[in-house]
Amino acid sequence: MSRTFAYCRVSTAEQTNDNQLLDIANAGFSVEPQRIIEETVSGSVPASERAGFQKLLDRMEAGDVLIVTKLDRLGRNSMDVRWTVEVLAERGIKVHCLALGGVDLTSPAGKMTMQVLGAVAEFERDLLIERTQSGLNRAVQQGKKLGRPIANTTTKLVQELKAQKFSQSQTAQKLRLGIATVKRHWNRPNAELGL
């Protein structure tokens, strides 16, 4: 008899898997709590390097079904998602993606759908990167300064204490700053600050 597993992933600790679990339940799947794998890891980390996903692979057997809400839960790019689905298919495990109407990604139709969607997602990501780079280049050509603004107040305080012959560690203690922050402002030229 096949067992149903769920893999839920979020990228940051501030996020929860609650919506994914709700979507799975609303789709009519009843997954026992011990068969739900939840993890917090960036989608840019390949599934093969995720501790939770490895735990899932250790538990699953041929005939089991894995439920994910979206393709991006399995990986950020189509190559990683395809590799993951192929590994599961070789083990006789079906992969259902709710965002694709619950299609089994290990079936021929599921494989084709996954490849088309993966290619479109990569194309969109490449376009976004291209637009971002174009915007950054235009800003530089217009003379705009990129990056974090210089913390003039902090630099001014550090420079004043330096002029009074305080050491870097004394300055850090007096200003209640980390030593790395003090070091960053210690040798900053005054001309850069407009002082």
Please name the defining characteristics of this protein.
alpha/beta, 50% helix, 2 domains, Rossmann fold, five-stranded mixed beta sheet
Please characterize this protein's 3D structure.
This protein is of the alpha/beta class and 195 residues long. It has two domains: 4-119, Rossmann fold; 152-193. Helix content is 50%, strand content 11%. It has eight helices and five strands; from the N terminus they run E-H-E-H-E-H-E-E-H-H-H-H-H. A five-stranded mixed beta sheet has the order 2-1-3-4-5, sandwiched between helices. Helix 3 links the parallel strand 3 (65-68) and strand 4 (94-97). Helix 3 runs antiparallel to helix 4. The longest helix has 34 residues, at 108-141. The radius of gyration is 25 Å and the shape is elongated. The termini are far apart.
State the order of secondary-structure elements, H for helix, E for strand: EHEHEHEEHHHHH
- The beta-strand count equals 5
What share of residues is helical? 40-55%
The CATH superfamily of the largest domain bears the name Resolvase, N-terminal catalytic domain
- CATH secondary-structure class of the largest domain: Alpha Beta
Overall pLDDT score? 86
CATH level-3 fold name of the largest domain: Rossmann fold
Rg calc = 25 Å
User: Distance N terminus to C terminus?
Assistant: 76 Å
Unreliable segments of 5+ consecutive residues? none
* Global morphology: elongated
In terms of DSSP E residues, the strand content is: 5-15%
**Proper CATH architecture of the largest domain:** 3-Layer(aba) Sandwich
Structure classification = alpha/beta
